[in-house]
Give the backbone structure.
Amino acid sequence: MNKKFKGFTLIELLVVVAIIGTIASVGIYSYNGYIKSSKKTAAKNTMMQIGLALTEFYSNSGFYWYNGLDDESSCTDEGSDAATKAVGSGLFDKENYINPEDGFNFCVIENGANFEIQAVYKADTKCMLRLDDSNVIDDTDC
């Protein structure tokens, strides 16, 4: 009575599904880290562009452009999408200059006679990048 079965047993299929699930979870975790890292790099590049635009604005007018925010908590408020659009229209003459898919909101804060650019990650408002007038990016909170 030698029966030949063609196919896999239920245990074999469950083991394969478990292995695939484990590999997928590691891949998704790595992918999400990659996405956040690329958004962070894009935000840093945008901050450098804003810094250059502020320097040009200063050389033309003798003062720095601010979007009217007076403290660092304003950049994390619900109106920070409007602040990002204000930066685009105030410095680049285009409201949608800053890509909203970058996942960061941007604002320019007055810092004495200088400026500070802040970028707050929309998915995690504790993640904030800062760039001051000396073009040094502080990403210790992110």
